[in-house]
Amino acid sequence: MKFTKEIERLEHSAAKLTVTVAKKDVAESYTQTLNKYVKQVQIPGFRKGHVPANVLERKYGEQIKLEAASDLIDNVLNEIFSDEKEIENRPLPYAQPKMDDMPTFDSSKDFVFSVTYDVFPKVEVKDFSGITIKEPQVTIGDAEVQEELKGIQERNAVVIDKGDDDKVEKDNIVTINIVEKDDDGNEISSTKRDGFVFTIGTPENVYKIDDEIIGMKKNETKEISKKYAKTDSDVELAGKTKKYSVTVTQIKVRDLPAIDDELAQDVNEKYKTLEDLKKDILNNLNTAKDKKIADIKSNSLLTQLIEKYPFEIPESMLQAELNGRWQMMAQQFQTTPEDLERMIKASGQSKEDMLKTWTGDAEKMLKSRIIVDTLIRDRNIAVTPEEIEEEYKKIADGNGITVEEVKKHYADPRSKEYLIDDAKEQKLYKGIFEEIKVSKGDKMTFADLFKQN
Q1: I need a surface site. Which of 182, 293, 315, 419 has the fewest CB within 10 A?
Q2: pLDDT the model gives residue 279
Q3: Interatomic CA distance for residues 69 and 60, integer angstroms
Q4: Which residues of the chain fall short of a pLDDT of 70?
Q5: What φ, ψ does residue 18 adopt, rounded to 5°?
Q6: How much is the pLDDT for 303?
Q7: Which of 292, 275, 297, 285 is nearest to 398 (CA)?
Q8: How far is CA 346 from each of CA 258, 328, 339, 340, 351, rounded to the nearest angstrom?
Protein backbone atom coordinates (compact mmCIF):
# COMPACT_ATOMS: atom_id res chain seq x y z
CA MET A 1 0.00 0.00 0.00
CA LYS A 2 1.32 3.42 -0.92
CA PHE A 3 1.01 6.16 1.65
CA THR A 4 2.93 8.96 3.31
CA LYS A 5 3.02 9.68 7.02
CA GLU A 6 3.94 12.56 9.28
CA ILE A 7 4.42 12.18 13.05
CA GLU A 8 4.27 15.24 15.29
CA ARG A 9 5.25 15.00 18.95
CA LEU A 10 2.79 16.75 21.28
CA GLU A 11 2.81 17.67 24.98
CA HIS A 12 2.45 15.05 27.71
CA SER A 13 4.28 12.38 25.64
CA ALA A 14 1.56 12.27 23.01
CA ALA A 15 1.91 12.07 19.22
CA LYS A 16 -0.20 13.00 16.23
CA LEU A 17 0.06 10.75 13.18
CA THR A 18 -1.20 12.11 9.85
CA VAL A 19 -1.42 9.68 6.95
CA THR A 20 -2.16 10.30 3.29
CA VAL A 21 -3.16 7.20 1.31
CA ALA A 22 -2.76 7.36 -2.47
CA LYS A 23 -6.06 7.46 -4.38
CA LYS A 24 -5.18 4.23 -6.21
CA ASP A 25 -5.13 2.31 -2.91
CA VAL A 26 -8.24 4.17 -1.77
CA ALA A 27 -10.09 2.97 -4.87
CA GLU A 28 -8.86 -0.60 -4.32
CA SER A 29 -10.05 -0.55 -0.71
CA TYR A 30 -13.47 0.65 -1.80
CA THR A 31 -13.69 -2.00 -4.53
CA GLN A 32 -12.75 -4.77 -2.08
CA THR A 33 -15.42 -3.68 0.38
CA LEU A 34 -18.02 -3.35 -2.40
CA ASN A 35 -17.20 -6.86 -3.71
CA LYS A 36 -17.62 -8.23 -0.20
CA TYR A 37 -21.13 -6.76 -0.12
CA VAL A 38 -21.87 -8.20 -3.56
CA LYS A 39 -21.03 -11.69 -2.27
CA GLN A 40 -22.80 -11.46 1.08
CA VAL A 41 -25.85 -9.20 0.74
CA GLN A 42 -29.17 -10.64 -0.35
CA ILE A 43 -31.84 -8.32 -1.79
CA PRO A 44 -35.32 -9.41 -2.91
CA GLY A 45 -35.44 -9.87 -6.69
CA PHE A 46 -31.76 -10.79 -6.98
CA ARG A 47 -29.92 -14.03 -6.39
CA LYS A 48 -27.32 -13.93 -3.61
CA GLY A 49 -24.00 -12.92 -5.09
CA HIS A 50 -25.59 -11.40 -8.17
CA VAL A 51 -26.79 -8.04 -6.87
CA PRO A 52 -25.56 -5.29 -9.24
CA ALA A 53 -22.94 -3.02 -7.68
CA ASN A 54 -24.88 0.14 -8.51
CA VAL A 55 -27.93 -1.22 -6.65
CA LEU A 56 -25.82 -1.88 -3.56
CA GLU A 57 -24.26 1.58 -3.75
CA ARG A 58 -27.69 3.23 -3.90
CA LYS A 59 -28.93 1.21 -0.91
CA TYR A 60 -25.77 0.91 1.24
CA GLY A 61 -23.49 3.60 -0.20
CA GLU A 62 -22.63 5.42 3.06
CA GLN A 63 -22.20 2.17 4.99
CA ILE A 64 -19.85 0.79 2.31
CA LYS A 65 -17.76 3.98 2.37
CA LEU A 66 -17.56 3.94 6.18
CA GLU A 67 -16.47 0.30 6.24
CA ALA A 68 -13.94 0.86 3.46
CA ALA A 69 -12.50 3.84 5.33
CA SER A 70 -12.30 1.87 8.61
CA ASP A 71 -10.57 -1.08 6.92
CA LEU A 72 -8.15 1.28 5.20
CA ILE A 73 -7.28 3.02 8.48
CA ASP A 74 -6.80 -0.29 10.32
CA ASN A 75 -4.57 -1.73 7.60
CA VAL A 76 -2.40 1.40 7.40
CA LEU A 77 -2.00 1.69 11.19
CA ASN A 78 -1.11 -2.00 11.51
CA GLU A 79 1.54 -1.60 8.82
CA ILE A 80 3.01 1.53 10.39
CA PHE A 81 3.06 0.27 13.98
CA SER A 82 4.44 -3.16 13.08
CA ASP A 83 7.45 -1.49 11.46
CA GLU A 84 10.49 -1.91 13.75
CA LYS A 85 11.74 1.49 12.62
CA GLU A 86 8.71 3.09 14.26
CA ILE A 87 9.16 1.45 17.66
CA GLU A 88 9.55 4.83 19.39
CA ASN A 89 6.34 6.10 17.77
CA ARG A 90 4.11 3.16 18.64
CA PRO A 91 1.09 3.91 20.82
CA LEU A 92 1.10 2.68 24.40
CA PRO A 93 -1.11 -0.34 25.07
CA TYR A 94 -3.07 1.53 27.77
CA ALA A 95 -5.13 3.62 25.33
CA GLN A 96 -6.18 3.25 21.70
CA PRO A 97 -5.34 5.95 19.11
CA LYS A 98 -8.13 8.53 18.88
CA MET A 99 -9.61 10.21 15.83
CA ASP A 100 -11.59 13.38 16.42
CA ASP A 101 -13.65 13.07 13.23
CA MET A 102 -13.87 10.45 10.52
CA PRO A 103 -12.66 12.16 7.31
CA THR A 104 -14.75 12.18 4.14
CA PHE A 105 -14.12 9.09 2.03
CA ASP A 106 -13.94 9.61 -1.74
CA SER A 107 -12.65 6.65 -3.75
CA SER A 108 -11.43 9.03 -6.48
CA LYS A 109 -9.17 11.08 -4.19
CA ASP A 110 -6.31 10.65 -1.74
CA PHE A 111 -7.54 9.71 1.73
CA VAL A 112 -6.11 11.77 4.61
CA PHE A 113 -6.68 10.97 8.28
CA SER A 114 -5.07 11.82 11.63
CA VAL A 115 -4.96 10.03 14.98
CA THR A 116 -3.50 11.08 18.32
CA TYR A 117 -2.18 8.71 20.94
CA ASP A 118 0.19 8.41 23.89
CA VAL A 119 3.75 7.22 23.27
CA PHE A 120 6.49 5.99 25.56
CA PRO A 121 8.13 9.07 27.14
CA LYS A 122 11.55 10.07 25.87
CA VAL A 123 14.29 11.21 28.22
CA GLU A 124 17.92 11.81 27.33
CA VAL A 125 20.36 11.60 30.22
CA LYS A 126 23.37 13.43 28.82
CA ASP A 127 25.65 13.51 31.85
CA PHE A 128 25.74 13.23 35.63
CA SER A 129 27.30 16.60 36.39
CA GLY A 130 25.95 18.10 39.58
CA ILE A 131 24.78 14.72 40.88
CA THR A 132 26.15 13.91 44.33
CA ILE A 133 25.43 10.84 46.41
CA LYS A 134 25.90 10.50 50.15
CA GLU A 135 26.37 6.99 51.50
CA PRO A 136 25.21 6.45 55.11
CA GLN A 137 27.95 5.16 57.39
CA VAL A 138 26.65 2.23 59.42
CA THR A 139 28.65 -0.20 61.52
CA ILE A 140 27.05 -3.37 62.80
CA GLY A 141 28.45 -4.77 66.01
CA ASP A 142 27.58 -6.85 69.05
CA ALA A 143 24.75 -4.52 70.14
CA GLU A 144 22.81 -5.16 66.92
CA VAL A 145 23.43 -8.90 67.12
CA GLN A 146 22.21 -8.93 70.74
CA GLU A 147 19.07 -7.03 69.71
CA GLU A 148 18.32 -9.69 67.11
CA LEU A 149 18.99 -12.44 69.65
CA LYS A 150 16.55 -10.76 72.02
CA GLY A 151 13.89 -10.85 69.30
CA ILE A 152 14.59 -14.55 68.67
CA GLN A 153 14.39 -15.18 72.42
CA GLU A 154 10.98 -13.47 72.65
CA ARG A 155 9.65 -15.33 69.62
CA ASN A 156 10.63 -18.62 71.24
CA ALA A 157 9.19 -17.71 74.63
CA VAL A 158 6.46 -19.80 76.26
CA VAL A 159 3.49 -17.87 77.64
CA ILE A 160 2.28 -19.21 80.99
CA ASP A 161 -0.39 -18.14 83.51
CA LYS A 162 0.71 -16.41 86.69
CA GLY A 163 -0.65 -17.56 90.06
CA ASP A 164 -3.90 -16.18 91.45
CA ASP A 165 -2.03 -14.25 94.13
CA ASP A 166 0.57 -12.86 91.72
CA LYS A 167 0.33 -9.21 90.79
CA VAL A 168 0.44 -7.49 87.42
CA GLU A 169 3.95 -6.35 86.51
CA LYS A 170 5.59 -4.61 83.59
CA ASP A 171 5.78 -6.79 80.44
CA ASN A 172 2.98 -9.07 81.69
CA ILE A 173 0.24 -9.98 79.21
CA VAL A 174 -3.08 -9.06 80.79
CA THR A 175 -6.71 -9.54 79.82
CA ILE A 176 -9.21 -7.04 81.18
CA ASN A 177 -12.88 -6.17 81.08
CA ILE A 178 -13.30 -2.40 80.95
CA VAL A 179 -16.17 0.06 80.85
CA GLU A 180 -16.26 3.84 81.06
CA LYS A 181 -18.44 5.54 83.67
CA ASP A 182 -20.17 8.92 83.62
CA ASP A 183 -19.90 11.62 86.28
CA ASP A 184 -22.67 9.95 88.32
CA GLY A 185 -20.84 6.64 88.36
CA ASN A 186 -23.16 4.92 85.87
CA GLU A 187 -21.72 2.60 83.23
CA ILE A 188 -21.76 3.85 79.63
CA SER A 189 -22.86 0.63 77.96
CA SER A 190 -21.53 1.59 74.50
CA THR A 191 -17.98 1.67 75.92
CA LYS A 192 -18.04 -1.79 77.48
CA ARG A 193 -15.27 -4.04 76.24
CA ASP A 194 -14.59 -7.58 77.50
CA GLY A 195 -11.48 -9.65 76.89
CA PHE A 196 -9.16 -6.79 75.90
CA VAL A 197 -5.60 -8.18 75.77
CA PHE A 198 -2.39 -6.13 75.86
CA THR A 199 1.15 -6.17 77.20
CA ILE A 200 1.91 -3.82 80.09
CA GLY A 201 4.27 -1.06 78.98
CA THR A 202 3.54 -1.21 75.23
CA PRO A 203 1.45 1.02 72.92
CA GLU A 204 -1.11 -1.80 72.60
CA ASN A 205 -3.13 -0.35 75.49
CA VAL A 206 -5.19 2.37 73.84
CA TYR A 207 -6.60 3.38 77.25
CA LYS A 208 -3.07 4.16 78.54
CA ILE A 209 -3.78 2.87 82.04
CA ASP A 210 -0.77 0.55 82.36
CA ASP A 211 0.56 2.19 85.54
CA GLU A 212 -2.89 2.04 87.16
CA ILE A 213 -3.19 -1.70 86.50
CA ILE A 214 0.26 -2.65 87.81
CA GLY A 215 -0.15 -4.31 91.21
CA MET A 216 -3.65 -5.68 90.56
CA LYS A 217 -4.42 -9.40 90.94
CA LYS A 218 -6.51 -11.79 88.86
CA ASN A 219 -10.29 -11.19 89.25
CA GLU A 220 -9.64 -7.88 91.04
CA THR A 221 -11.80 -4.89 90.04
CA LYS A 222 -10.58 -1.32 90.30
CA GLU A 223 -12.15 2.08 89.71
CA ILE A 224 -9.70 4.26 87.79
CA SER A 225 -9.77 7.99 87.13
CA LYS A 226 -7.36 8.97 84.36
CA LYS A 227 -6.50 12.54 83.41
CA TYR A 228 -5.01 12.77 79.94
CA ALA A 229 -2.55 15.44 78.91
CA LYS A 230 -3.71 18.17 76.54
CA THR A 231 -0.89 17.12 74.23
CA ASP A 232 -2.01 13.47 74.10
CA SER A 233 -1.71 12.04 70.57
CA ASP A 234 -5.28 10.68 70.81
CA VAL A 235 -7.57 13.63 70.11
CA GLU A 236 -10.47 11.73 71.71
CA LEU A 237 -8.57 11.66 75.02
CA ALA A 238 -6.46 14.83 74.95
CA GLY A 239 -7.22 17.12 77.90
CA LYS A 240 -10.04 14.93 79.24
CA THR A 241 -10.55 13.00 82.47
CA LYS A 242 -12.02 9.52 82.07
CA LYS A 243 -13.40 7.17 84.71
CA TYR A 244 -13.14 3.43 84.14
CA SER A 245 -14.12 0.25 85.92
CA VAL A 246 -11.47 -2.37 85.19
CA THR A 247 -11.43 -6.08 86.05
CA VAL A 248 -8.32 -8.17 85.47
CA THR A 249 -9.37 -11.60 84.21
CA GLN A 250 -6.02 -13.10 83.21
CA ILE A 251 -2.33 -12.43 83.86
CA LYS A 252 0.29 -14.16 81.76
CA VAL A 253 4.06 -13.96 81.64
CA ARG A 254 6.53 -14.85 78.92
CA ASP A 255 8.95 -17.53 80.02
CA LEU A 256 12.04 -16.55 78.05
CA PRO A 257 14.49 -19.28 77.10
CA ALA A 258 18.17 -18.83 77.84
CA ILE A 259 20.28 -17.44 75.01
CA ASP A 260 22.55 -20.42 74.57
CA ASP A 261 23.49 -23.30 72.25
CA GLU A 262 20.14 -24.99 72.88
CA LEU A 263 18.21 -21.93 71.67
CA ALA A 264 20.38 -21.79 68.56
CA GLN A 265 19.61 -25.46 67.84
CA ASP A 266 15.88 -24.81 68.34
CA VAL A 267 16.00 -22.01 65.80
CA ASN A 268 17.51 -24.23 63.09
CA GLU A 269 19.22 -27.60 63.16
CA LYS A 270 22.05 -26.19 61.04
CA TYR A 271 23.26 -24.24 64.08
CA LYS A 272 25.36 -26.33 66.45
CA THR A 273 26.35 -23.51 68.78
CA LEU A 274 25.23 -20.02 69.73
CA GLU A 275 28.28 -18.67 67.91
CA ASP A 276 27.01 -20.26 64.67
CA LEU A 277 23.71 -18.41 65.08
CA LYS A 278 25.51 -15.13 65.87
CA LYS A 279 27.65 -15.39 62.75
CA ASP A 280 24.54 -15.95 60.62
CA ILE A 281 22.75 -13.03 62.27
CA LEU A 282 25.74 -10.76 61.61
CA ASN A 283 25.86 -11.89 57.99
CA ASN A 284 22.13 -11.28 57.51
CA LEU A 285 22.32 -7.85 59.14
CA ASN A 286 25.19 -6.82 56.88
CA THR A 287 23.29 -8.10 53.83
CA ALA A 288 20.23 -6.10 54.86
CA LYS A 289 22.40 -3.04 55.55
CA ASP A 290 24.11 -3.23 52.15
CA LYS A 291 20.77 -3.62 50.35
CA LYS A 292 19.22 -0.69 52.22
CA ILE A 293 22.20 1.57 51.51
CA ALA A 294 22.11 0.55 47.84
CA ASP A 295 18.39 1.44 47.74
CA ILE A 296 19.06 4.83 49.36
CA LYS A 297 21.84 5.62 46.89
CA SER A 298 19.84 4.57 43.81
CA ASN A 299 16.77 6.46 45.02
CA SER A 300 18.87 9.60 45.56
CA LEU A 301 20.38 9.20 42.09
CA LEU A 302 17.00 8.82 40.37
CA THR A 303 15.43 11.68 42.34
CA GLN A 304 18.21 14.01 41.16
CA LEU A 305 18.00 12.76 37.55
CA ILE A 306 14.23 13.36 37.51
CA GLU A 307 14.89 16.95 38.59
CA LYS A 308 17.81 17.43 36.18
CA TYR A 309 16.02 15.97 33.13
CA PRO A 310 12.28 16.67 33.55
CA PHE A 311 9.76 14.95 31.29
CA GLU A 312 6.04 14.22 31.38
CA ILE A 313 4.23 10.96 31.99
CA PRO A 314 1.30 10.24 29.62
CA GLU A 315 -2.05 10.30 31.35
CA SER A 316 -2.91 6.79 30.12
CA MET A 317 0.31 5.39 31.63
CA LEU A 318 -0.36 7.09 34.96
CA GLN A 319 -3.94 5.86 35.08
CA ALA A 320 -2.84 2.31 34.27
CA GLU A 321 -0.37 2.44 37.18
CA LEU A 322 -2.97 3.84 39.60
CA ASN A 323 -5.56 1.28 38.53
CA GLY A 324 -2.97 -1.46 38.98
CA ARG A 325 -2.34 -0.29 42.53
CA TRP A 326 -6.07 -0.22 43.18
CA GLN A 327 -6.40 -3.81 41.93
CA MET A 328 -3.48 -4.87 44.13
CA MET A 329 -5.05 -3.21 47.17
CA ALA A 330 -8.29 -5.10 46.49
CA GLN A 331 -6.34 -8.38 46.39
CA GLN A 332 -4.66 -7.55 49.69
CA PHE A 333 -8.08 -7.00 51.25
CA GLN A 334 -9.29 -10.20 49.54
CA THR A 335 -12.15 -8.41 47.85
CA THR A 336 -13.15 -7.06 44.44
CA PRO A 337 -12.24 -3.55 43.23
CA GLU A 338 -15.93 -2.67 43.29
CA ASP A 339 -16.40 -3.83 46.90
CA LEU A 340 -13.19 -2.04 47.88
CA GLU A 341 -14.62 1.19 46.49
CA ARG A 342 -17.75 0.69 48.59
CA MET A 343 -15.61 0.01 51.69
CA ILE A 344 -13.59 3.19 51.10
CA LYS A 345 -16.75 5.21 50.56
CA ALA A 346 -18.24 3.89 53.82
CA SER A 347 -15.16 5.15 55.68
CA GLY A 348 -15.84 8.70 54.46
CA GLN A 349 -13.29 8.72 51.63
CA SER A 350 -13.55 8.11 47.91
CA LYS A 351 -11.57 6.18 45.33
CA GLU A 352 -10.73 9.43 43.55
CA ASP A 353 -9.31 10.97 46.75
CA MET A 354 -7.17 7.91 47.40
CA LEU A 355 -5.85 7.75 43.84
CA LYS A 356 -5.01 11.43 44.08
CA THR A 357 -2.85 10.81 47.14
CA TRP A 358 -1.00 8.07 45.24
CA THR A 359 -0.36 10.18 42.14
CA GLY A 360 2.92 11.84 43.17
CA ASP A 361 4.53 8.55 44.23
CA ALA A 362 3.22 6.80 41.10
CA GLU A 363 4.64 9.49 38.81
CA LYS A 364 8.05 9.31 40.50
CA MET A 365 8.10 5.51 40.26
CA LEU A 366 7.21 5.60 36.54
CA LYS A 367 9.80 8.28 35.78
CA SER A 368 12.45 6.34 37.68
CA ARG A 369 11.60 3.17 35.77
CA ILE A 370 11.76 4.98 32.42
CA ILE A 371 15.15 6.54 33.24
CA VAL A 372 16.55 3.16 34.31
CA ASP A 373 15.22 1.39 31.19
CA THR A 374 16.58 4.16 28.97
CA LEU A 375 20.05 4.03 30.53
CA ILE A 376 20.17 0.22 30.34
CA ARG A 377 19.28 0.41 26.64
CA ASP A 378 21.62 3.30 25.85
CA ARG A 379 24.54 1.60 27.60
CA ASN A 380 23.76 -1.82 26.10
CA ILE A 381 23.87 -3.40 29.54
CA ALA A 382 23.45 -7.17 29.57
CA VAL A 383 24.22 -9.97 32.00
CA THR A 384 25.97 -13.23 31.22
CA PRO A 385 24.93 -16.72 32.43
CA GLU A 386 27.99 -16.63 34.69
CA GLU A 387 26.78 -13.39 36.29
CA ILE A 388 23.36 -14.93 36.91
CA GLU A 389 25.07 -17.89 38.58
CA GLU A 390 26.85 -15.40 40.82
CA GLU A 391 23.49 -13.83 41.66
CA TYR A 392 22.15 -17.25 42.66
CA LYS A 393 25.12 -17.72 45.00
CA LYS A 394 24.72 -14.24 46.49
CA ILE A 395 21.03 -14.86 47.21
CA ALA A 396 21.82 -18.26 48.70
CA ASP A 397 24.52 -16.86 50.99
CA GLY A 398 22.31 -13.98 52.09
CA ASN A 399 19.41 -16.25 53.01
CA GLY A 400 21.30 -19.21 54.41
CA ILE A 401 20.02 -21.65 51.77
CA THR A 402 21.59 -23.66 48.97
CA VAL A 403 22.11 -22.50 45.40
CA GLU A 404 19.88 -25.35 44.24
CA GLU A 405 17.03 -24.02 46.39
CA VAL A 406 17.48 -20.56 44.88
CA LYS A 407 17.44 -21.95 41.34
CA LYS A 408 14.26 -23.85 42.13
CA HIS A 409 12.65 -20.61 43.26
CA TYR A 410 13.60 -18.92 39.97
CA ALA A 411 12.67 -21.89 37.77
CA ASP A 412 9.60 -20.03 36.52
CA PRO A 413 10.55 -18.00 33.39
CA ARG A 414 8.88 -14.85 34.68
CA SER A 415 10.71 -15.05 38.01
CA LYS A 416 14.02 -15.57 36.26
CA GLU A 417 13.30 -12.65 33.94
CA TYR A 418 12.73 -10.48 37.00
CA LEU A 419 16.10 -11.63 38.41
CA ILE A 420 17.83 -10.82 35.12
CA ASP A 421 16.25 -7.35 34.97
CA ASP A 422 17.30 -6.66 38.56
CA ALA A 423 20.86 -7.83 37.79
CA LYS A 424 20.99 -5.43 34.83
CA GLU A 425 19.77 -2.60 37.02
CA GLN A 426 22.36 -3.27 39.73
CA LYS A 427 25.05 -3.44 37.06
CA LEU A 428 23.87 -0.05 35.79
CA TYR A 429 24.08 1.51 39.26
CA LYS A 430 27.52 0.06 39.88
CA GLY A 431 28.83 1.66 36.69
CA ILE A 432 27.24 5.03 37.43
CA PHE A 433 28.50 5.16 41.02
CA GLU A 434 32.01 4.68 39.66
CA GLU A 435 31.52 7.75 37.46
CA ILE A 436 29.99 10.19 39.93
CA LYS A 437 30.97 11.52 43.32
CA VAL A 438 29.88 9.28 46.19
CA SER A 439 30.82 10.84 49.53
CA LYS A 440 30.50 9.59 53.08
CA GLY A 441 27.18 10.47 54.63
CA ASP A 442 26.10 10.71 58.27
CA LYS A 443 27.01 8.04 60.76
CA MET A 444 23.93 6.26 62.01
CA THR A 445 22.78 3.12 63.75
CA PHE A 446 21.37 0.12 61.94
CA ALA A 447 17.90 0.93 63.34
CA ASP A 448 18.07 4.55 62.16
CA LEU A 449 19.17 3.39 58.71
CA PHE A 450 15.83 1.65 58.22
CA LYS A 451 13.95 4.78 59.21
CA GLN A 452 15.31 6.47 56.07
CA ASN A 453 12.84 6.90 53.20
Answers
A1: 182
A2: 93
A3: 14
A4: none
A5: -115, 125
A6: 96
A7: 285
A8: 49, 20, 11, 10, 11
